[in-house]
Structures are given as C-alpha cells and as structure tokens.
Known about the structure:
Elements: E1 33-37, H1 42-53, E2 57-62, H2 65-78, E3 85-88, H3 94-106, E4 113-116, H4 135-150, H5 152-156, E5 162-166, H6 189-213, E6 219-223, H7 241-256, H8 260-263, H9 265-272, E7 281-284, E8 292-294, H10 304-318
Parallel strand pairs: 1-2, 1-4, 2-3, 4-5, 5-6, 6-7
Antiparallel strand pairs: 7-8
Helix pairs in contact: 1-2, 3-4, 4-6, 4-10, 6-10
Bound molecules: NADP nicotinamide-adenine-dinucleotide phosphate (NAP).
Amino acid sequence: MTEVQSAPTDTATPPFLPRRWTTADIPDQQGRTAVVTGANSGLGLRTAEALAAKGAHVIMACRNELKAAAALESVFAAATGPKPEVLPLDLADLSSVRRAADHLDMRGAGIDLLINNAGVMALPRSIRTADGFDAQFGTNHLGHYALTGLLLPALLRAEAPRVVTISSVAAWGGFINWSDPNWRVLHLRWLAYSQSKLANLLFTAELHRRARAAGTRLTAVAAHPGLSSTHLYDSDGEKGVGARLAAAQQRMIFSLAQSDRMGALPQLYAATTPGLRGNSYVGPAFEAFGYPRRALRNPLAYSRLQAGALWRMSERLTDVHYEWP
Ligand SMILES: NC(=O)c1ccc[n+]([C@@H]2O[C@H](COP(=O)([O-])OP(=O)(O)OC[C@H]3O[C@@H](n4cnc5c(N)ncnc54)[C@H](OP(=O)(O)O)[C@@H]3O)[C@@H](O)[C@H]2O)c1
C-alpha cells in the first residue's frame, strides 16, 4: 500500500493563524457538551479545565477513578458553567468503551465536542488490551475509533459536532504494519506508537470524508502538542532497566519540553475555532513548541487507500460499524 495522494484542497487550516493564540481566545462554550478522553492528566486535564472555564459542560472520560476524582476538583474549580462529570472509560477494553458510549447515548443529549486525547506511548510487548491488541494501537486508535462510532448518534444530535483526535510528531515515523498491526511477530514499541499516531491522522481524514459523504455537519480535525511535560513518559509499571531508561528519558524530556498548558493549545484551537475546515491538523508553530498553527503531516496520512483500508480493519477488529443517517 504505497499510494499517496496529494492533500485535497479543502483540508488545509489557514496557514496564518494569530501568532499567539491562547485560551483567552476560546469563544464562549456555554450550552456545549464536551467529552474529553484521558481528562485526568496532562493535556486532557488542561483541555478540560480550559473548556469548563469557558462554560462548557465537560465530561471527563477516564479509566482510573481515584485520579479522575482528584482531577475533577481542579476542573470544577475552573468551571464557570455546568458541573463537570466523570465518565468511567477504559479505551483498552472494548466492553468498557461500549458501556461508556451507552451511558452517554442514553442521556439523549447531543455531544458537541469529542476530544480523543487519551494515549499511551511505547509500552512493552507484555502490555496488551483486554481484547488482545497492542497497547498503543488498541488504546490510541482502536479504542477511539470504537468510541467515536458508538457515540455517532449523540454527536449527530448536536448542531455542529466536532471530533478532535490527538496525534503526534511521532506520526512522521509511522507506517501501518498491515500484516501485523498488533506487532505480535516482532514488537517494536516506538514503531507501534508511531503507527498508532499515524492511524489517528488516517482516522481523522476518513471520518471527515465519510461524514461529508453522508451529508452530516460533523467535522473531524486533528491536533498534536509538540513536546510537552506530561505523564506520557512515565514507565507504566515497568521495572529494572526499562524503568530506569524511562526515568532518564522523562528527566531529559522535562528539561526540553514546553508546559502541558502550552501543549494543550493546539487541541483547544482545533476544538473551538469556529469554521475550522474538516481534516485540519493543528500543532505548535515550531513543531515541538510554540503557539498553534497549521501542522505538517506525514505524506502517508493523505493516502485515501490507506485511510479506507485502516477503517475497514478497525471495523473488523472492533466490530463497530458507524451508522450514518
Ligand atoms: N506529551 C507529549 O509530549 C505528547 C506528544 C505527542 C502526542 N501526545 C499525545 O497527547 C495525548 C495526551 O497525552 P499526555 O501527554 O497528556 O499524557 P498523560 O499525561 O500520560 O495523559 C494520558 C491520559 O490518557 C489516559 N489513558 C491512557 N490509557 C487509557 C485507557 N486505556 N483508557 C482511558 N484513558 C487512558 C491516561 O490515564 P491514566 O492517568 O489513568 O494513565 C491519562 O489520563 C496522547 O494521545 C499522546 O499520544 C503527547
């Protein structure tokens, strides 16, 4: 699968964004409901706080009850509108994804904004999802693919629903390992992460295309945070050499990276800027750091062939089939 297409003309974000776009530029979010995955930590937490501060009803979809309860306090402290809520969600378990989506759908209200933010990075082969997928592919891509599809009815109840999926500069090094997407034969953790982040971009492109083809108002866009100080670089329970390497890596990253508040700006821009074109990709001005602007992407992310094939593979692996009107 090597076919690469040039960027369709309607996919670009305006290249000249305001030079220093900040949370102060977020328009009023009153009356809007925003679901943020992984909202208890790092970029998700900062995103939840900023949206709540502008009046959105924020639903924090998190896997760890204790961490979520602590984070809820800070989002609550920032909120100027409806009380934020926590929704239990483990993206590494499709039954949990179905429960979370059912819970939201049964409320009958629309979801204006879904921010597919949660993620794990470079975890070892031993960590797999409940359904046996590679941790990165299963959590970062398949979990969000399934969640978005199951929330489609609720998203389409909103007036102008938007899905923002968080990718990474790591997507530049990514390719889809078509014969072994769950890295069972040879597990290369960084390539597994890069694959999942390329998948986030291919997913956004295909979601945008399908939403438009179905004549819906749903907009799918992507963002990346550059290099930001968060818990993404933690060792996730590894012991021995793996843990020591992760700690050293974390110290190095923290000395170079921008803050999580800065890192959250591209996804906040992507989530709240009115009229943003479908399949836009927003990142920091200098790739690793800076204020939001249009981001460049791995040319593979423009492949319709790969986006379509990944979609069909995701349907097969998750058994989630989007029901367009
Ligand atoms: N920080 C960076 O420099 C950087 C760079 C490029 C891209 N990104 C992307 O930014 C996004 C946010 O990451 P972050 O940097 O803010 O890292 P973080 O502080 O580790 O936050 C990740 C969030 O995802 C949650 N999560 C992980 N697995 C989950 C699962 N199975 N179900 C539900 N939630 C799960 C985590 O929950 P727990 O707290 O329970 O673990 C946490 O809330 C990720 O998609 C990441 O790939 C980050």
